[in-house]
Amino acid sequence: MKASVLVVDDDADIRETLGMLLSRHGFPVATACDGADALAQLHAGAQPGLILLDLMMPRMNGEEFRRTQLAEPDLARIPVVVLSGAGRSQDLLQRIDKGVEVLPKPIELSELMDTVRKHCAGD
Amino acid sequence: MTGASIGRKLIALTLVLALLPILCVLGFVAAKQIRDLRTEMLASSTMMGSIVAEYGAAALAFDEPHSAQEALNVLGRHEEFRDAALYDMRGRLFASFQQLGGGKSEVLPILLDPYAAKPRTDLEGDRIHVVQAVDHDGVRFGTLVLHTSTARLSASVNGYLYSLGLLIVVILLASALLAWALEKMISRRLRKLAEVAQRIAQKEDYSVRATDTGADEISLLAEAFNSMLAEIGRRQEQALQAVRVRDEFLSVASHELKTPLTSLKLQVQSLLEQPPSFSDHGEGQRMASSLALTDRQVRRLERLIGNLLDVSRIAVGRFHLQIEDVDLALMVRDVVAQFSAEIARSGTAVAVVLPEHAVGRWDPLRLEQVVVNLLSNALKYGDAKPIEIRVAVDDERARLIVHDRGVGVDASNHARIFERFERAVSVNYGGLGLGLYITRQIVQAHGGTIGVDSALGQGATFTVEIPRRRQEAI
């Protein structure tokens, strides 16, 4: 069974597009509209195989989410791939968090699917 | 001279000012005194010659060299008479006088041509040469030659020269003192000011200030200099701030443009990778929703680029309205309908309160932009809470009110949100920060006003008022 993907992005169209593409490739998808929403879903028991994380979001941005996630041992092991359109905040995150993977926007479909398959291919 | 330091110029100026009049006056007085003395000496020599000649005439007439000698000896009482000689008509020396210690005698043993010796008084080198005819009642008996020393005259000249020299030395000293004081009062302070300017130019540190505690023009200059520095510092801060705003804007703009581009690209690549078959109903639906999403992204990109173009149009002052009859009530209804999908997706309730008609002379495309911007802001920052849109008209004006119950704007940011590239909330909300700027420009171009009533966390009410008929010269 394939592991699920949590898409965290404040842009509804991105959530819809990624949700549509990933589920068509057989990956269960959950979406969150910002870091706080994602954190709430994780605390409620969601166990995604991968988190696709946008950086610029209201309430709790990607960087804050990542910091909170790393501080909680249960959540820290979930791999995160950052989807970012702004060079600066992406550089900033990579400087503090060397383990994070980045897919720069606009994303290539093939790269996206390779990344998701790598983390969520299942058995 | 223009290349010399101010200190040197001041010294030169002081010297010229002090020396010139004193030298002129002193020179004039000395010249007059010396000339007077000379005239007086010539006169007294001539007079003495006349007196001696008077006595000499009797002595010559009676051939009494002894009494002639006595008459000449009278001259010994005055040091300035060097020598004197009395000759008879044959040119022989009759009697002579030589001042004691008077140096070399010029008394000639014989006068070569007694008749040719014309009476005269001349200044010759260091002596006055007097030739006097010795006669009585028109009968000539001989000739008197008298030499007077001009030592008194040259002593007087030397005295003047000496005091002149002394005066020059004193003036030079005084000038040097004055120049030193001036240098301290002016030159040194100017140099300190220049050093500050140089230090600033080298280190680009505009916090440095000139210190001058005086109360004259140089202090004024230092003050002006300091306020210029403060101004430069302020402008530099402004320039740096502008660069920061620009950099942030570029970062935000690239994020904003890439977001719809991401959806667009993924949809198109997905369709290319697995073209849907049209016979299958489910695939047809996939195609339809993909195209709808694609269309939405294209519109978003169009709107973003349109906003960027509007801002550059406003910046170069090319922002013209196409005025026609427009019904604002109808327009609001249309815009809300256009946004129905977004409204539904955000889960927001939008209440609309409209009069039947709200017709005015406006630019329909621009006014629609105002409605769209205010509504999309309300949706974006409205926290999914109910939104109200209200239109009201009276004879003069139309009023559009958009009220949300979302994140709100702190009072300190009310003015800022209408500026270019500015947002009250964090950069995380996305958007170019151009919407309200463009909105305000459009409202103002219509001769109207826009205002906001809001507090942080308390929602926001934007109120637009525009005249129904356009006033002239806007």
Strands, helices and their partners?
The complex is a heterodimer of chains A (123) and B (474).
Chain A: E1 5-8, H1 12-24, E2 29-32, H2 35-43, E3 50-54, H3 62-71, H4 73-76, E4 80-84, H5 87-96, E5 101-104, H6 109-120
Parallel strand pairs in A: 1-2, 1-3, 3-4, 4-5
Chain B: H1 6-61, H2 65-73, E1 81-88, E2 93-98, E3 120-124, E4 127-136, E5 139-149, H3 151-203, H4 217-273, H5 281-315, E6 324-327, H6 328-338, H7 340-346, E7 350-353, E8 359-362, H8 364-381, E9 387-393, E10 397-404, H9 435-445, E11 449-454, E12 460-467
Parallel strand pairs in B: 7-9
Antiparallel strand pairs in B: 1-2, 1-5, 3-4, 4-5, 6-8, 9-10, 10-12, 11-12
Helix pairs in contact in B: 1-2, 1-3, 4-5, 5-9, 6-8, 8-9
Description:
The complex is a heterodimer of chains A (123) and B (474). Helix content of chain A is 47%, strand content 18%. Chain A has 123 residues and is an alpha/beta fold. Chain A has a five-stranded parallel sheet with strand order 2-1-3-4-5, sandwiched between helices. In chain A, α2 (35-43) runs parallel beside α3 (62-71). Chain A is globular and about 30 Å long. The mean pLDDT of chain A is 86. Chain B is of the alpha+beta class and 474 residues long. Chain B is built from nine helices and twelve strands. Chain B has helices spanning 6-61, 65-73, 151-203, 217-273, 281-315, 328-338, 340-346, 364-381, 435-445, and strands at 81-88, 93-98, 120-124, 127-136, 139-149, 324-327, 350-353, 359-362, 387-393, 397-404, 449-454, 460-467. In chain B, the strands form three sheets. Chain B has a five-stranded antiparallel sheet with strand order 2-1-5-4-3. Chain B has a five-stranded mixed sheet with strand order 7-9-10-12-11, covered by helices on one side. A two-stranded antiparallel sheet of chain B has the order 6-8. In chain B, β3 and β4 (127-136) form a beta hairpin. In chain B, α4 (217-273) packs antiparallel against α5 and α8 packs antiparallel against α9 (435-445). The interface between A and B is medium-sized, with 30 and 37 residues.
